Structure of Class E sortase:
Amino acid sequence: MATMGERRSARRDRTRKRHRITFLGVVGELSITAGVLIFLFLFWQLWFNDLVVRAEQNTAAEELSQSFIDAAQQDPTAAPSDDPVDPTAPPIGTTAGDAQEFGVLTIPRFGDDYNAKIAGGITRTRTLNPIGIGHYMTTQAPGEVGNFAVAGHRTTYGKPLNEIANLRVGDAIVVQTAEGWYTYRFRTLEYVTPTASDVLNPVPQADEVEATDRLITLTSCSPMYSAAERIIAYGVFESFTPITDPAPASLELPEGDG
């Protein structure tokens, strides 16, 4: 038969065990709660919020596109060529200063609901995050001989260049400004280091070479959720459609896509 002291010792042991189990249980519950909150935050930040922002960016770009058309209907004079040697050359598209919107990027391969505004500069806080696509202002303008180079996020903030790696040779890359639509065709994709600024040259990756072609260069981060490299997509100018004309067929989805 247990003595009084033994019974007291047994009660103390049971009490300590209950306290130990309760403490571990609280820690476990807090860990589970923290995990759920982190998951919900990531779900919001990396998926749902991007869907909302992408939809807002698309709507804003469509409105800007329509404003160009509406302005042309009020003043239907087509923009003349800026090339005195070749009057058939496209007019040089309007660009703008830092964080000032001047164009719309449409890439049918990215879906029938894809449009993104283009603004001057590539700062995250002023252009890339709130607007979408930023123009490297040291590069050429749409339709100009040389290299019209732009940047955009591949993840977060509407991720306007999320599908850049899915481009196929010949895909249309269309830039609309107040002058009209400049259609480029995707040519090639490559990966470079973040310091490879020569991709922005008038002739990409060639120094002090006079440009003869009209090019577009899209730049974004790679791999996903990292800035270790840059993914670069090049396109070659194909045609210009004045803003006073119907929108070009190049804005339609690629054949076989729905």
The beta strands are 101-106, 116-120, 132-135, 146-152, 172-176, 180-192, 214-222, 229-242.
